[in-house]
Design a protein that fits this description.
The structure holds 4 protein chains of 4 kinds. Chain A is built from 13 helices and no strands. By secondary structure, chain A is mainly α. Chain A starts with a helix and ends in a 5-residue tail after the last helix. Chain B is about 70% helix and about 0% strand. The termini of chain B are far apart. By secondary structure, chain C is an alpha/beta fold. In chain C, the strands form 4 sheets. Chain C has a 6-stranded parallel β-sheet with strand order 2-1-3-4-5-11, sandwiched between helices. A 5-stranded parallel β-sheet of chain C has the order 9-8-6-7-15, with helices on both faces. Chain C is globular, with a radius of gyration of 22 Å. The chains are: A mainly alpha, B mainly alpha, C alpha/beta, D alpha/beta. Chains in contact: A-B, A-C, A-D, B-C, B-D. At the B-C interface, helix 1, helix 2, helix 3, helix 11 and helix 12 of B face helix 1, helix 2, helix 10 and helix 11 of C.
C-alpha cells in the first residue's frame, strides 16, 4: 500500500512539474513541439552531441556519487563545489609541473585531484567534528574560499605571461589532455572514471562493512555507536571519500573539458548534483538516469538558445521546477508516513 | 580613507543589511531560509521590472519585498506544513529563483531605469564628518539604520521579541507556554523574506542600478555568512555588513601593491565566518563569554538552538 | 512577448493589485536596440532569390544586450546580415562563468551544422577555443577578433591555420580621444580608468587613453603634467563576474570618493556611466566615458562626455563578402577610423560620439584634436616616452611601430596602477 | 479550586497510554500521581497541558468543562504545569523568562514588580537580571512556579519536579507546595518517588500500564503502594541453581554522575555466570551504574577492575572489545537503526574482518537468527515495523554469542508475556554458559525470580545487597521505598 501511495504521489509531482514547465515555455513563447524535439535532438541528434552530453554527464555523475556518500552518512555536504575546485587545482598543479608521458601525467592528475578534493572535504569534516562548525555553513564558506584560491592562482602565480585575467591559465601541455575518440570531444577515460567512481560508491555503500557502518551512522549515530562504530571517524571518512570523488570531477573538468584551469571550473555541477541527489533520493542507481536527464537539459538549453532564440536559463528553470515539485510532494508524503509512525510509538515532543 | 569613502561603505552595505537582518529575524524564529541568493536575485529583478514599468521606485521596492516574501513562504510552507527538510527546500529555491530571474528578467537587462534619489537630512547632514557618512544618503539607507535599531529593539527589548526568540530556542517549551509556534514562524519567515527582498530591490534600484543576470553578486550567500558572523545579533550582523563593505574598499586600495590578494579579498566574509565560529566554539572562549550578560551574548552569538528543526506539536 | 503575463506570475502584483500599466513604456533610450530584446536569432530577411542565405555565426562573450562590447558586435553582425539579406546565428554569454558547459569548439561545430559560412569569435578570452576549433575545421572561414594568430609578424603566428583571420579596430584612437575629452573637462585633473583584465590589449588601450589625456591637459590646456593624475584599477575580467572579479560599481564609487571627477571605462559593461549618472543627479560634478558601444551614453546622457565605440558593421560586411566571393583567407587587419567622418556607420570602424556632458567649448577643442590625429600631424605614440618604472620605451622623436604598440609590455610613466 | 477528570482515554496506535483515568482533586488538596516510567503519567500531564488531545473523557475545573485543545487554552483556564524540565529558556534573563509567552501585555516594569512580590511571598531568591542558565534546577522551578502563579494558575501540576534537585531545594519546593495548598490551590504531584509522595501528598492515585492501579488516602503502608506500582506475577517461576563461578569484576568505592542521575561510593562484585538484579525506584542510580560500567559515564572515583585489571579509563568501544555488551531501555532510539533491515543489522553486528559483505551469508545468518530468536519478521524487516518484543529479541539476536558481561536495562519492559518469558529463558542460557548479567528492572518478581543477587539502590547508593533466593517481594518493596528493615 505504501509503494502504491508513493507511486501515486510521484506521478502527481511529475504532472505538476510538467504543467508548470509547459506554462513557462508558453510564457516565453517557446514553440512546444520544436522545444521538445530539440530536447532530444540537442542532446542526441549527432554523435558529436551525444559525446557532448556525456561530457556534461561525467561531472554530474562524479559530484552526485560524492554526495551519495556524504548524504549516506547523514551529512549535507554543500561544500562539494569547493571540493571539485580543489581537485581541479591539484590536477592543474600536476599538469603544470609534471613532465612525462600522458599515462604518467594523467595518473598523477587523477591521484592528485582525488587527494586535493579529499583534503578539502576533510577540512569541512574537521570543522564539523572538532570545530563545531555545521557542515552546511562550513561547506558554503569553503566553496567561496576555494573560488578565492583559484582566482588567486589564475591571476597571480599561475597567470599567463604579462596577463592578469581571471579568464584562466595557459592551456596544459598535450600530455595532460584526456585522450578523446576521433572527432568527439568526450573522453572515454573520463566516462570510465565517472562510472567506476559511481559503481564503487554503490558497491561501497551496499556491499561493504564500511558502507553499512557509514549508513548506520547516518541514520542513527547513537545506535551506530552502540554497535561499536566510532562514528566521528566514519563522518571524517565520508568527507574524505566524498571530497575525493568530487575532486575527480575537478580533474575531468580541467583535463578533459577546459584543458586549463578557469575560476568557474566546477561549472556549478556540484550544486546541480545536490538537486540530482535529492531527486534520486540519495540512491546511486537513480543518479545515472537523472544525471543524464540533467545533462540532456543542459545540452538542450544550448540548442534552444541557438536555434529557437530561447533564454539560456530556461533549462535551469525546468530543472528547478522538477526538483522542487518532487521534493515538496514526496516530502509531504514521507512526513505523513512519519507522523503516523510517531503516533504509533507515542513519541511526542517535550 | 576620507568621509566620502566611509559614505560609500555605508551605502554599499545597505542591501546587505536588509538581507542579513531579514535572515536574522527568520533564523531567530528557528527557520533557516537558505534561498537568499536566489530570492534576492528574483527580487532585484521584479523590483527593477516593476519600477521600470510603472516608473515608481516605491512600487518596485514593494514588489521586491513581496517576491522574496513569497519565496520565504514556500520555505516555511515546505518546512512547517509539508515537513520537508528546510535545507533542501532552500537550496532548490536558490537554484530555481536564480534561473527564473535570468529567464524572466531577460527583457530588462541593463536598461536605464528609475532609482532611489539622494535625500540629505537637513541639519544632520551638517554634522562634521559623520554628516557626510550617515546623512547625505538616500531614504533606503536611512531605513536600513532604522531596521537595525528596530530589529535590535524588537528582538531583545519587547515582549513579542521574547516570544520570537523563544520559538527559535525551544519551540516545544514555547508551545507549552501557549505561544503559537508555527503561526509565528510563518510570520517571521515571511517578514524576514520581505526584508531579504528589499535587499534585492535595493540592489537594482540603488546600490547597483539596473538589472543584469547574477546582479546581486553573491550577496545572498554573503548575507547568510554574515548572519552567522554576526551571531544572530542585529547589531553585530550590521557591523559585519559594514566590515564587508570596508574590506572591499581595502581590496581596491591594495591593488597597486598586492594585486593578486586584492582580487581575492571579496570572499573574506566566508573565512571570517568560519574562524569566528571555531573561535567561539572553543571551550575557553565559551566559558569566558558566559560570565557576561548582554555583552557576553553579543560576543558569544550562539545560534537559536532549534534552528532548522521543524516543530510538530502532535 | 507575454511579459505582462509574466508580471501576473510575480507575487509583486499580488501585493500591488492588478497591473494598471499595460502599455509598454519603451523609452527613446532603448528604441534603437529593439532587436536586442527580441530573442529570435534570425534577424533578417526575406530570402527571395538565394535558396541558401549567407549565415554568419557570432560568438559573444557577454550578453548581446550588455550596452557594451558584446552589443557592439551583435549590432555589427546585424548590420552585415541585413545588407546581405543573410542570417545571424548568435551565441552569447560564452564565458566559463555564465555557460560552464559550452566550449568554443562545441559552438563552432554547431554553427557549422547550421550552415554558418563565417564564424566570428569576438573575445580575447576565446583565443584557445577558436584555435582548437580552427584546427578541427581548417576549411571553414573563421575570425578571431582581437587576436593575432594571423599576423605573420606577430608573436603568436599560426601559419597552419589558413582560414582563421583576425581583425580589430584601432581603438587606440578612440581611447586617445576619450582621454583628451576627460582631460579637457576635468576640473580636478584626476582621471581614473576602470580597467578590465591586464594584457597587451588593455595596456595599449589604457596607455593610449593616458597619452590623449596628457596631450590635451598640457598642450591644449597648457597645464602642468604633474597636476594630472591618471589612475588605473583592474577588475580582473572584461566584465563583472561575481566572486571572480572586483565589483566595478564599488570601484567606480571609490574612484569618485577619492576625488576623481572623470572615470574612463575600459570594461565591457556600463557600471562607470551608471554610477556617474547617479552621482551627477545627486548634484556632484562628475563624468564618465563608457566604452565599446555607441548607445552607452544613453545610460546617463548628461554625465557622459562621449563614448569611443566600435562600429563593426562595415568590417563584418567586408569579410562576409569576401567569403561569399570565395576570396577569404586568413589575414590580420588592424583597422583605423575613417578620418573623414569617424562616425560614419558605413565606413568607420572606430567612432567617438560626444556626450551631453561635454561643454561646447571643449567639444570644439576635441574636434581640433580629432582633426590633428586624422591628418597625421599628431602622433602621440612618439618619444620620448618612458615606462612606468622609468625605463625608456621610445627615444626622443622615435615613433612606435605597430608591433611595439600591439605588444605593449607595461604602462607609461605618469600612470598609476599595476601593469601585470 | 477543584479539578475533576472523568474517564480520560488516549491511544497511540495499538498502545493505550491512558485507559479511562478518573480522578478528582479538591481545593487545598495535594494529590500524588504515582507510577513507574511508562505508566501513563506523562501522557496525562500532556493532556492536561493541552499539548495532546484526549480521545475520550472529560475535564472539569470548578464545574466548568474544559476542551483543552491547546496549551494556550490550558494556560488561560488556570491550569499551571511545572514540567519535569522547567520550561526555561536558558539564554534569557530571569525576568525575560518570566515574560515569555505571557498573554498579558505587561512590560518589564510589571514583571519586575510581580516577580519580586511572588518571590517574597514564597521566599524565593531570584535575581531578575541574571541569565537563566546560571540558575540551579531548583531555582528554575521557582521561576516557573512564580510565572504560573502570575498567570493566575488555579491548579498546579508538578511533573517529576524532584528529579534533578538537591534535598534542600526539595524541602523548599515542598514548603512552597504546602503554602500553595494552604491557600486553597489544587495540586497534582506527579512522581515515581514513593517516599516523596508519602511525605507530601494527602491522597495518591497509582498508575500502572495506563490504568489506575489504586487510589488511596495517605498515609498508607509502603508495601501496599509498592505492590500496586510494580508489576508482579507475570513471569514463570523458574528458580535456578546457584552458580559458583570465578570472580569476574569488582567495583570498589565507585562514584559517577550524569545528568540526571548519580552513583555514590558503590561496591559490587560479580562472578562469572552470575545474574545481578539492580532494584530501586526510577532514578535511584541503577541506570547510571549500568551506563558507567558500559563506559558512557566516566567514574569520578573508585576503581573498576575486570579480572584484576583496572579498566575504569577505557571507553565504551574498548570495553566492547573486552566482551562487554550493553542493551539500552530505549531500544528504538539507542539500540536499533531505523531504516536498516534485519539482515543489515546482522551484518553490522558481526565482527567480520573482511571488507566486503557476502549478503547471501548475511541473509541466511539473519534468517537463522530470526528463526532461533523467534522474531516475527523477515530478513528485510526494519526495526520500526517490529513490536517491542520483537525489537528486544532482535537486539539479543545481534549480540555476540557469548559476551563476558551483559549490561541490560529493563529486559522485559513493554514486552508481552510470551516475549518476556522467551527473553529470560535465553538470558538464563547465556548465564549458564558463563555470561555475567547485570540488569535493572522495576518488576520485583523479575528481580527475585531471575537474579542471584539483588543490589538495592536508594538515592544513588547501594544500600543493600541481598541473596535473591532469600528475598521476598514484600521485603524488597520496603527496601526500595527507603525503609531499612534488615
Amino acid at each position: 500500500m505504501n509503494a502504491l501511495q508513493q507511486t501515486k504521489y510521484f506521478a502527481g509531482a511529475i504532472t505538476i512539474s510538467l504543467v508548470v514547465s509547459i506554462f513557462f515555455l508558453w510564457l516565453v513563447e517557446a514553440p512546444l513541439v520544436d522545444t521538445a524535439k530539440l530536447l532530444v535532438e540537442g542532446a542526441f541528434g549527432t554523435n558529436q552531441r551525444i559525446g557532448d552530453t556525456f561530457m556534461i554527464w561525467v561531472p554530474l555523475l562524479l559530484a552526485s556519487a560524492s554526495l551519495v556518500v556524504t548524504f549516506s552518512a547523514g551529512l549535507w555536504n554543500i561544500g562539494v563545489e569547493g571540493q571539485i575546485v580543489a581537485g581541479a587545482v591539484a590536477a592543474s598543479f600536476v599538469a603544470r609541473e609534471v613532465q612525462g608521458s600522458t599515462a604518467v601525467v594523467l595518473t598523477l592528475m587523477v591521484i592528485g585531484g582525488f587527494v586535493g578534493g579529499a583534503l578539502w572535504g576533510l577540512l569541512v569534516g574537521v570543522l564539523r567534528v572538532r570545530g563545531g562548525v555545521n557542515e552546511i555553513f562550513g561547506g558554503i564558506g569553503l566553496n567561496f574560499v576555494a573560488t578565492g584560491l583559484i582566482v588567486y592562482l589564475v591571476i597571480g602565480p599561475w597567470s599567463r605571461d604579462g596577463v592578469a585575467s581571471t579568464g584562466g591559465t595557459e592551456p596544459f601541455g598535450p600530455q595532460a589532455w584526456f585522450p578523446t575518440i576521433d572527432g568527439l570531444r568526450v573522453s572515454p577515460l573520463a566516462l570510465i572514471i565517472a562510472f567506476v567512481a559511481l559503481v564503487s560508491v554503490m558497491f561501497l555503500l551496499s556491499k561493504t562493512h564500511f558502507g553499512l557502518r557509514l549508513r548506520a551512522t547516518g541514520k542513527n549515530s547513537l545506535a551506530a555507536n552502540r554497535f561499536g562504530i566510532a562514528t566521528s571517524r566514519y563522518l571524517l571518512m565520508a568527507f574524505i571519500i566524498g571530497g575525493g570523488i568530487a575532486g575527480l570531477a575537478g580533474v575531468t573538468q580541467a583535463g578533459a573539458v577546459y584543458h586549463r584551469l578557469v575560476p568557474s571550473i566546477s561549472g556549478g555541477y556540484g550544486f546541480l548534483a545536490i538537486l540530482i541527489v535529492l531527486l534520486a533520493r540519495f540512491r546511486g542507481l537513480w543518479v545515472i538516469p537523472i544525471a543524464l536527464f540533467f545533462a540532456t537539459i543542459a545540452m538542450a538549453s544550448f540548442q534552444w538558445q541557438l536555434r529557437l532564440g530561447l533564454h539560456s536559463a530556461l533549462g535551469g528553470v525546468i530543472q528547478g521546477v522538477l526538483v522542487l515539485s518532487i521534493v515538496l510532494v514526496m516530502g509531504y508524503q514521507e512526513g505523513r508516513q512519519h507522523r503516523e509512525q510517531s503516533n504509533i510509538r507515542g513519541n511526542t515532543a517535550l | 580613507m576620507n568621509a566620502a569613502t566611509f559614505a560609500i561603505i555605508v551605502a554599499s552595505a545597505t542591501p546587505l543589511i536588509f538581507a542579513a537582518i531579514g535572515e536574522t529575524i527568520t533564523e531567530k524564529a528557528g527557520v533557516v531560509n537558505l534561498s537568499l541568493d536566489g530570492s534576492m536575485l528574483l527580487s532585484a529583478m521584479t523590483g527593477f521590472a516593476i519600477a521600470y514599468t510603472t516608473g515608481s521606485v516605491e512600487l518596485g521596492l514593494l514588489a521586491g519585498m513581496a517576491t522574496s516574501g513569497v519565496v520565504a513562504f514556500v520555505v516555511a510552507f515546505g518546512g512547517i506544513r509539508l515537513r520537508v527538510n528546510q535545507i533542501a527546500v532552500g537550496l532548490i529555491l536558490t537554484y530555481f529563483a536564480t534561473k527564473l530571474s535570468a529567464l524572466l528578467g531577460g527583457e530588462f537587462v541593463r536598461k536605464p531605469g528609475p532609482s532611489v534619489q539622494k535625500m540629505s537630512l537637513p541639519v544632520l547632514e551638517d554634522i562634521p564628518f559623520f554628516g557626510e557618512i550617515l546623512f547625505q544618503q538616500n531614504p533606503l539607507v536611512y531605513f536600513s539604520f532604522l531596521l537595525i535599531i528596530v530589529s535590535f529593539w524588537w528582538i531583545f527589548h519587547t515582549r513579542r521579541g521574547l516570544d520570537l526568540q523563544a520559538i527559535g530556542e525551544r519551540p516545544e517549551a514555547a508551545f507549552a507556554r501557549g505561544i503559537p509556534v508555527n503561526s509565528l514562524r510563518y510570520f517571521y519567515t515571511v517578514l524576514g523574506g520581505a526584508f531579504v527582498g528589499l535587499g534585492g530591490a535595493a540592489f537594482s534600484l540603488d546600490a547597483k542600478m539596473g538589472w543584469s543576470e547574477g546582479h546581486i553578486a553573491n550577496y545572498g550567500w554573503i548575507a547568510l555568512a554574515l548572519v552567522i558572523f554576526g551571531g544572530w545579533h542585529p547589531l553585530r550582523v550590521a557591523f559585519g555588513c559594514y566590515l564587508f563593505g570596508a574590506i572591499q574598499i581595502v581590496a581596491l586600495k591594495m591593488q597597486p601593491t598586492l594585486p593578486d590578494l586584492a582580487q581575492v579579498l571579496p570572499i573574506a566574509p566566508f573565512p571570517l565566518m568560519i574562524l569566528t565560529l571555531v573561535f567561539l566554539n572553543m571551550r575557553v572562549v565559551q566559558s569566558f563569554t558566559m560570565r557576561f550578560g548582554g555583552i557576553g551574548r553579543l560576543i558569544r552569538g550562539t545560534a537559536p538552538s532549534a534552528l532548522g528543526e521543524s516543530f510538530w506539536p502532535d | 512577448m507575454r511579459w505582462k503575463l509574466m508580471m501576473l506570475l510575480l507575487p509583486a502584483l499580488l501585493a500591488l493589485g492588478a497591473c494598471s500599466s499595460s502599455d509598454d513604456t519603451e523609452s527613446a533610450l532603448t528604441s534603437q536596440s529593439a532587436a536586442t530584446t527580441v530573442a529570435a536569432t534570425t534577424v533578417a530577411a526575406v530570402a527571395t532569390e538565394a535558396p541558401e542565405p549567407f549565415k554568419l555565426g557570432l560568438i559573444l562573450v557577454g550578453p548581446r544586450d550588455d550596452r557594451g562590447y558584446s552589443q557592439a558586435h551583435f549590432e555589427g553582425g546585424t548590420y552585415a546580415v541585413e545588407k546581405l539579406q543573410g542570417e545571424l546565428i548568435v551565441v552569447d554569454k560564452v564565458n566559463p562563468a555564465d555557460s560552464p558547459n559550452i566550449t568554443i569548439p562545441q559552438i563552432v561545430d554547431d554553427m557549422i551544422d547550421q550552415g554558418a559560412h563565417l564564424i566570428i569569435a569576438t573575445s580575447d578570452d576565446m583565443k584557445d577555443g577558436i584555435l582548437e576549433a580552427a584546427a578541427a575545421h581548417p576549411d571553414v572561414p573563421m575570425i578571431h577578433a582581437s587576436g593575432d594568430s594571423a599576423w605573420a609578424d606577430g608573436k603568436a603566428y599560426h601559419a597552419e591555420l589558413p582560414m582563421l583571420g583576425n581583425f580589430f579596430g584601432q581603438m587606440e584612437y578612440g581611447k586617445m580621444i576619450a582621454g583628451c575629452a576627460a582631460a579637457l573637462q576635468s576640473d580636478a585633473g584626476k582621471i581614473s580608468y576602470l580597467g578590465p583584465l591586464i594584457n597587451d590589449e588593455t595596456r595599449r588601450l589604457v596607455s593610449s587613453t593616458f597619452l590623449g589625456a596628457r596631450h590635451c591637459w598640457t598642450e591644449v590646456l597648457g597645464k602642468s603634467a604633474s597636476d594630472l593624475s591618471f589612475n588605473v584599477n583592474w577588475i580582473g575580467f572584461w566584465f563583472n563576474i561575481p566572486g571572480f572579479t572586483l565589483d566595478p560599481t564599488v570601484v567606480a564609487n571609490e574612484f569618485f570618493a577619492s576625488g576623481t571627477d572623470v572615470i574612463i571605462s575600459g570594461i565591457d559593461t556600463t557600471e562607470a556611466i551608471v554610477e556617474a549618472g547617479k552621482k551627477a543627479s545627486a548634484g556632484d560634478t562628475v563624468w564618465a566615458i563608457p566604452y565599446d558601444y555607441e548607445g552607452a551614453c544613453a545610460e546617463a546622457p548628461t554625465a557622459c562626455l562621449g563614448v569611443p565605440y566600435f562600429n563593426w558593421g562595415p568590417t563584418y560586411l567586408k569579410n562576409a563578402q569576401s567569403v561569399i566571393d570565395g576570396e577569404f583567407t586568413a589575414s590580420f587587419a588592424w583597422i583605423g577610423p575613417d578620418w573623414s567622418d569617424i562616425n560614419n556607420h558605413d565606413t568607420s570602424t572606430i567612432g567617438f560620439l560626444k556626450g551631453d556632458g561635454l561643454t561646447s567649448a571643449n567639444a570644439e577643442k576635441l574636434d581640433d584634436f580629432i582633426a590633428s590625429l586624422g591628418d597625421g600631424s599628431l602622433n602621440l605614440w612618439t618619444g620620448p616616452l618612458n615606462f612606468q618604472d622609468g625605463s625608456s620605451f621610445l627615444g626622443s622623436g622615435v615613433a612606435a611601430t605597430d608591433l611595439e604598440i600591439w605588444y605593449m609590455p607595461s604602462l607609461l610613466e605618469g600612470m598609476e596602477g599595476p601593469a601585470e | 479550586m477543584s479539578l475533576e477528570l472523568r474517564a480520560i482515554t488516549k491511544r497511540f496506535g495499538s498502545v493505550v497510554a491512558n485507559d479511562t483515568i478518573s480522578l478528582s482533586v479538591g481545593p487545598g488538596e495535594i494529590h500524588g500521581l504515582l507510577g513507574e516510567n511508562g505508566a501513563g503519567k506523562s501522557t496525562l500531564v500532556k493532556i492536561l497541558s493541552g499539548f495532546i488531545t484526549r480521545d475520550h473523557g472529560e475535564i472539569e475545573l470548578d464545574g466548568t468543562k474544559l476542551h483543552l485543545l491547546s496549551p494556550n487554552e490550558a494556560v488561560a483556564n488556570g491550569i499551571g504545569i511545572l514540567h519535569q524540565e522547567p520550561l526555561v529558556f536558558l539564554p534569557f534573563s530571569v525576568v525575560d523568562n518570566f515574560l515569555i509567552g505571557s498573554p498579558k501585555e505587561y512590560g518589564h516594569a510589571e514583571a519586575y514588580e510581580a516577580l519580586s512580590r511572588i518571590s517574597e511571598q514564597f521566599g524565593f531568591d531570584l535575581n531578575p537580571d541574571v541569565s537563566a542558565s546560571n540558575l540551579s534546577i531548583g531555582e528554575r522551578q521557582q521561576l516557573e512556579i512564580a510565572r504560573l502563579l502570575w498567570l493566575g494558575a488555579r491548579v498546579l501540576i508538578l511533573d517529576e519536579p524532584t528529579t534533578a534537585i538537591s534535598s534542600t531545594q526539595r524541602e523548599k519546593l515542598f514548603a512552597t507546595i504546602r503554602d500553595l495548598a494552604g491557600d486553597g490551590m489544587s495540586v497534582i504531584f506527579v512522581s515515581h518517588k514513593l517516599e516523596e509522595v508519602q511525605e507530601l501528598c494527602d491522597r495518591v492515585t497509582i498508575l500502572r500500564e495506563g490504568k489506575i492501579a489504586a487510589s488511596v488516602d495517605l498515609p498508607s503502608p509502603v508495601e501496599y503502594l509498592v505492590s500496586k506500582m510494580f508489576g508482579t506475577g507475570v513471569l514463570p517461576q523458574t528458580r535456578r541453581a546457584k552458580v559458583n563461578g570465578s570472580s569476574l569484576l569488582e567495583l570498589v568505592n565507585a562514584s559517577a554522575s550524569e545528568q540526571p542521575g548519580q552513583i555514590i561510593d558503590a561496591n559490587l562484585a560479580v562472578t562469572r555466570g552470575q545474574v545481578i538484579g539492580l532494584a530501586g525506584l526510577e532514578g535511584a542510580g541503577q541506570r547510571t551504574l549500568l551506563r558507567a560500567m558500559a563506559g558512557f559515564v566516566p567514574f569520578t572515583e573508585g576503581s573498576f577492575r575486570v579480572q584484576s585489571a583496572e579498566i575504569s579509563e577505557l571507553d565504551y568501544l574498548d570495553r566492547l572489545g573486552l566482551g562487554f555488551y550493553y542493551l539500552p531501555a530505549d531500544r528504538q532510539r539507542e539500540g536499533l537503526v531505523n531504516g536498516l533491515s534485519i539482515t543489515e543489522h546482522v551484518a553490522l553486528s558481526v565482527t567480520d574482518q573482511s571488507k566486503v559483505i557476502d549478503w547471501n551469508v548475511a541473509r541466511s545468518e539473519a534468517a537463522r537468527r530470526i528463526d532461533k530468536f523467534s522474531i516475527k519478521g523477515t530478513v528485510e524487516s526494519t526495526p520500526e515495523s517490529l513490536s517491542g518484543g520483537n525489537q528486544q529479541r532482535l537486539l539479543l539476536a545481534l549480540m555476540p554469542e557469548a559476551p563476558l558481561l551483559l549490561l541490560m536495562e529493563h529486559p522485559t519492559r513493554g514486552l508481552d508475556i510470551e516475549s518476556a518469558t522467551w527473553v529470560w529463558s535465553y538470558l538464563l542460557t547465556l548465564s549458564e554458559s558463563g555470561t555475567s548479567i547485570i540488569f535493572s528492572s522495576s518488576d520485583l518478581e523479575e528481580l527475585t525470580t531471575y537474579s542471584d543477587q539483588i543490589a538495592i539502590f536508594f538515592s544513588g547508593r547501594i544500600i543493600d545487597q541481598v541473596d535473591a533466593s532469600e528475598a521476598t517481594v514484600e521485603e524488597l518493596g520496603l527496601l526500595i521505598g527507603g525503609v531499612r528493615q534488615r
